Amino acid sequence: MKITPIITIVAAISAWFFPWWSVVIAAGLAGLIGNPKTAALAYAAGFAGVGLAWSAYALFLNFQNQGLLAGKIATIFHLPNSATLISITIFIGSLLGGFGCMTGALLRKIFEK
Amino acid sequence: MVSKILKFTGSLLASFLLVYILGKQPGQLPLVGAKLQNSPAAMLPPLGKFLNPFGGFWQNAEAPIPVMPPKTVLEKLQAPVKVVFDDRLVPHIFAQNNPDLYFVQGYITASMRLWQMEFQTHAAAGRLSEIVGSRGIEFDKEQRRKGLTYAAEKLVQMLGSDSLADPAVHAYTEGVNAYISSLSYRNLPVEYKLLNYEPEPWTTLKCALLQKKMADDLTGNSTDIEYTNLATVMGKEAATLLYPQYFEGQDPIIPPGTKWNFTPVQPSGKNATAQPAGNKTGYAPVFPANGQNLQTPQPETEPTIGSNNWAVSGSKTLSGKPILCNDPHLQLNLPSIWFETQLSAPGINVYGVTIPGGPGIVIGFNDHIAWGVTNAGVDVKDWYKITYKDASKNEYQYADSWRKTEKRIETIKVRNQPDVVDTVTYTHLGPVVFENYGPQKQNLALRWKAHEPSNEFKTFYLLNRAKNYADYEQALSFYECPAQNFAFADSQGDIAIWEQGKFPVRYKEQGKFILDGNNPADEWQAFIPNQQTPHIRNPKRGFISSANQHPTDPSYPYYYQANDFEYYRNRRINRRLTEMDSISIKDLQQLQFDNYNLQASESLPVMLRHLKPEELDSSQQTALQTLQKWDFMNNPDDTAPALYEAFWQNLLTSIWDELNSRPDSLAMVYPENAVTIRLMDKQPDSKFMDVAATPQKETLKDLVKPAFTKAVTDIAEWTVKNQQQATWANYKGTSVMHLARIDAFSVKNVQTGGNYGIVNATGKRAGPSWRMIVAFTNNGIEAYGIYPGGQTGNPGSPNYTRFLDKWAKGEYYPLNYYTNPDSIKAGQYLLITEFEPKKK
User: Does B406 or B39 have the greater pLDDT score?
Assistant: First the structure.
């Protein structure tokens, strides 16, 4: 799990400069280079890493906006509250990171003995 | 090894699948999409893109103080431009030349209102289906049949030859485009992200479309079809009684008795001697509403638009200098229809509100003059029966011979669906809007002043720079449609009002009913010359005012009509202005927020005349006492106004059963309330009081008690259903709705009083969209204003509805009118942003 903070940073940078799905590649590269021991560990690292990046930024934006827009979007999506919307956001980021990092790690495993 | 490859491939595929699913709108996904088609989930944006905090909607979750770059380099600028945002986010734009001024106005306005600008022009052009899909097709067809794009194209062509307005419109357009091209998905307005589309380049046509949209909003309401139906079914006398040209007791804009010192124009040309068709309704077809079903007239839910303005001369003010007031009543929408701006460059320093999407200031003031507008409402929209030679629609009958039509193919692009094509046939009168309409398969062509090009942009360009009455008069002379009452005051002490517009010279009742497209005499023969449209300068009574009432008394030598001349707001305003003396700004703020229900004060006594307390039960008696004790103020927390409104609406429904419950489903329209009230008062046993569905003959007396008892029940049921007290504000339920009707971006149940027909004309869906007061003082201008919204159009910003609470309470903001950007001290502004030309 040492690569988790690295994934967080790399995901944040790539998401700022590239489209939303670039976090999958970022996490994938981290998995490829960082080489977690197992696929499950890779998944966990990517899940936590990107999830952290997305949650930190979403929570910051939500805080400075006093939850105004998240509340409105939650209403449009028929969600009970903005906390649910934040959770879904984080979960999606996490999924992207998890699969990305796992894919990278599994690619590396092919070439290892 | 193989298993490793399989695992990798599986994981890779899962990743791809995830990105694929999260990158598409659910409705666009294969397999699932088709199943979702009719569920709201189909319209969800692509979730990965939308929820990504680094680019999706979270980016629109703005802090209370927005972030702006201190410096922006813009290629097309000639010189540096400084923009000062005050604490309410009003931009004060200081440029060194006119092109730069309008360029930056376009840039700044777009940066705060882009989505609204584009959505409104898409709506005007009949292009909503491109955004909302098949739901928009009927609306788009109607817009295109009305010919707003046709009109806007003609306007753009005409503008090309104008050396003042055209460069302004072009510079503005380039400014909007400079902003659009600076955007990435991250900084798109949230509506684009939610509805998953992108802005297209702005064009001068879009500026023109907005101008035509205003013309449609303000002159588009035509009741010729409904009048024709009534005259055909009930006779011409009934039409004259229910829809009179003039109300007795009316208080017109030009004080009654004012002399007209001109010789009226007579129609000239080859048609001048032709005789109009004798019996205007003899041939008249009858029209069901919407072609098929009865559309019950619902005056209480119809967004009624109108406006108030007035100016008092120094002889009536405390300061000895004039004060001008204006509050245009438009549909209450978010983002707000208005955007406050100050524009400053050599030769111009003007403050006021503008409609996002067009250059200049529409209502406002400068160092020398102040002006405000109300809608004239005079009918400039007529319908002509057209006879085609054959089904090809290539020729139509005119002056008993055949003329060629022109066809305009309208291709409506529908999101995710094939295009819809509609062919609109044009005659020399205008587009044939209705085809095969009603049981008699009529074709109706539209002759509408809004279809003609006229240079309103030039009027505002000149008015923004006007220094005195002569400049005002000259600026107005270019203004044709939608006709407005321009109230005026200046620093030299002049006050004036001009009903400015281009009006056809009509024979009596021409255009009140459907006209004959074959008969040249039924055409518009001439226009009233500008100097002969109603206007007055410095009247003896010391004030000018308008509130959408008749412009003149019946001595005015030209015939004109409207279907909704005001009878209450104007009389209340004039009564108050006549009574008042040593008028202060505060007095006029109170008058703009005046909740006195003049209609109730004149109708309730007539209604109660027929109500016997001894016939009522105790809850009804309590309700009666509430009404009897009422001071006729439509204050938000009182219950009496709600009771009156329910009583009045019930009575209206039962009196006009011959209009609202017709077995033949004909389109009909209620008379003005003033007409109904006069009828109730003077002819309580008129045949219109009879309920057609019952064998006995009713008079007003028989209608009042059921209307009243039903009102008491209605209110009780409403209270149970809504779980709140039926105070006026609750019962009325004023709502300010997002343009795309997204509830979460709207504000409902605003706690405020007033109603249509009251000076504070805040109804359910329309009301004072900008309240402005401008006082000239010895130290320059003192101005106040407020509108129900906020400067930013971003629903994710706290500034989106920032002014709404104060507006609902009738409060104002002092307007910051700066003369020199360098003299603005710290604390007087929120932020400064500078625009610089690209260094060569």
Answer: B406
Query: What is the 8-class DSSP label of residue B288?
Result: B
B813 domain residue, yes or no: no
Among the partner residues A69, A72, A103, nearest to B12 by beta-carbon distance? A103
The model's pTM is 0.94
| A73 interfaces chain B, CB cutoff of 8 Å | yes
Query: What residue numbers bound the domain in which B660 lies?
Result: 598-632+639-726
Task: State the Rg of chain B over Cα.
Answer: 28
Question: pLDDT tens, B512-537?
Answer: 988 989 988 889 989 999 999 999 99
Interface check A42 vs B, CB under 8 A = no
Residue A52: list chain B partners with CB under 8 A: none
- B52 and A61 in contact (C-beta within 8 Å)? no
Q: Is A47 on the interface with B (CB under 8 A)?
A: no
Chain B contact for A97, CB < 8 A?
A: no
Q: Is the dihedral of CA B701, B702, B703, B706 positive or negative?
A: positive
Domain ranges of chain A: 4-111
Judged by CB atoms closer than 8 Å, whether chains meet at B8 and A103 is answered as yes
On the CB side of B340, CA atoms within 13 Å amount to 31
Judge whether B211 lies within some domain.
no
Q: Is B13 on the interface with A (CB under 8 A)?
A: no
Chain A residue closest to B64 (CA)?
A65
Interface touch A78/B8, C-beta < 8 Å: no
> Which residue type does B401 have?
S
Please answer whether residues B702 and B685 qualify as being in contact, where contact means their C-beta atoms are separated by less than 8 angstroms: no
Is B55 part of the contact surface with chain A (CB cutoff 8 Å)?
yes
Give ipTM to 2 decimals: 0.96
- DSSP string for B319-335: SSS-EEEEEEEEE-EES
Residue A33 near chain B (CB below 8 Å): no
| Binding-face residues of B in 743-762 toward A, CB within 8 A | 743-745
Record: contact B53-A58, CB cut-off 8 A: yes
Tell me the pLDDT tens digit for each residue of B21-77. 999 988 888 887 777 777 777 788 999 999 999 999 999 999 998 888 889 999 899
Query: Helices A82-111 and A4-17: crossing angle, nearest 10°?
Result: 110
Mean pLDDT rounded to a whole number for chain B: 91
Contact, B378 vs B562, CB < 8 A? yes
Task: Evaluate whether residue B674 is within a structural domain.
Answer: yes
Cα separations in angstroms, B243 against B26, B282, B513, B567: 53, 18, 11, 13
Is residue B719 one of the residues assigned to a domain? Answer: yes
pLDDT tens digits for range B471-482: 999 999 999 999
Q: What is the pLDDT of residues B599-640, one digit of tens each?
A: 999 999 999 999 999 999 999 999 999 999 999 999 999 999
Please give, rounded to a whole number of angstroms, the shortest distance from the CA of A104 to a CA of chain B. 8
CA atoms of B70 and B80, how far apart (whole Å): 13
What domain count does chain B have?
A: 1
Q: Cα B168 vs. chain centroid, distance in angstroms?
A: 24
| Lowest model confidence (mean pLDDT) among B160-169, B183-192, B298-307, B458-467 | B298-307
Q: Which of A10, A72, A77 to mutate to test binding with chain B, by most B CBs within 10 Å of its CB? A: A72
More confident residue, A39 or B305: A39
